[in-house]
């Protein structure tokens, strides 16, 4: 994956680290990730347990959800969206589903695509600890038993690579490199 | 070198990001020709047939009713051309589909390590959504584990982050994503940023113009099943 057309900067970011990440970002139950070994994280990995409330959706109060207004067909139809399709490992992502027709009440089952327990409800939050491409799926059911689904294709990346590709400040990148045992950022490319 | 590297990195899919709200606050490094707004493409999908008299297509062997226009008779789908393999997709009596490309924003968050540094940084993105229904194969309604794919070719023009003096046009760039089918239905959303991330490339810069050169829906056998077009009843 990392053998790409970028210069030595990104190649360095893609190089595997022989050193484990610092204990501050490790959890008690390491999670296998691919393709690059990185630090397992959890919602409480910041050192302040409880800082991330997976039931608090206030941070998305002003988020512009990309959801359809109405159904195109008479058959039961739902739409769904996610706050980000590309994120670093350990990011908290919020999903939202919406019934476009059908008979209420509606139920939504969320398969996050990473072999973790399913979620339920119109809005859910999730933390991806596995790097890779995931295909979370929400399946909606209305009162008549009709079902509809939406797949959301998203990618979870190594925090260092994510920071570099999203133009984060160099200090952030350097700190992430240190946390993940990677060499410092090389000098400018001639 | 860096110019070319970043150019390829941003080559996949974008739309007129100049139309996003965020773009209004950030000036492009250089000016170039683009519409003030071009937020969305939404197009119907129709059956794709093997072309006639083109490289890789069939050889003309007939003409239309006027006797002057060459044709390939009978028409042939890619599925048929490949020998009608099991698992190839077909349209059911209610079969239809559409695909949309919509300019938007990606709420890029840095995660638990740097939450303060991240969530406010929205970047240009392109939401891609495909919906199809009553898709069948030799067993009836197509369903998992069979997975088709969407293949696109895009031509992006933008002002690269590393070279602000003039815009650049990236080589036509092919990419795609998988589309699972459940009981004959496909409903998939993803984004250009996600696709670029898979390719280890940065997100598209603001003020990007995208030309959609081609869109193909391929069945689980890799045969082109549908493309953008119309059916005239």
Describe this structure in words.
The complex is a heterodimer of chains A (190) and B (233). Residues 1-38 and 40-50 of chain A have low confidence and may be disordered. Chain A starts with 7 loop residues before the first helix and ends in an 11-residue tail after the last helix. Chain A has 190 residues and is an alpha+beta fold. In chain A, helix 2 packs antiparallel against helix 3 (170-179). Chain A has a domain at 53-158: Immunoglobulins (Immunoglobulin-like, Sandwich), CATH 2.60.40. Chain A has helices spanning 8-14, 159-165, 170-179; strands spanning 78-82, 86-88, 92-99, 107-111, 119-120, 123-127, 132-134, 137-141, 147-152, 154-157. Chain A contains three helices and ten strands, in the order H-E-E-E-E-E-E-E-E-E-E-H-H. Chain B starts with a helix and ends in a 5-residue tail after the last strand. In chain B, the strands form two sheets. In chain B, strands 1, 4, 5, 6, 7, 8, 9, 10, 11 and 12 form a ten-stranded antiparallel sheet that branches. A two-stranded antiparallel ribbon of chain B has the order 2-3. Chain B has one domain (2-50, 89-228). Helices cover 8% and strands 39% of the residues of chain B. In chain B, a hairpin with a 2-residue loop joins strand 5 and strand 6 (140-141). Chain B is mainly beta and 233 residues long. At the A-B interface, strand 1, strand 2, strand 9, strand 10 and helix 2 of A face helix 1, strand 4, strand 5, strand 9 and strand 10 of B. Strand 9 (147-152) of chain A pairs parallel with strand 10 of chain B.
Q: Any chance you could write out the topology, listing elements then pairs?
A:
The complex is a heterodimer of chains A (190) and B (233).
Chain A: H1 8-14, E1 78-82, E2 86-88, E3 92-99, E4 107-111, E5 119-120, E6 123-127, E7 132-134, E8 137-141, E9 147-152, E10 154-157, H2 159-165, H3 170-179
Parallel strand pairs in A: 2-10
Antiparallel strand pairs in A: 1-3, 3-6, 4-5, 4-8, 7-10, 8-9
Chain B: H1 2-9, E1 40-47, E2 62-63, E3 70-71, H2 78-81, E4 90-107, E5 122-137, E6 140-141, E7 147-158, E8 168-169, E9 173-180, E10 186-191, H3 192-198, E11 209-218, E12 224-228
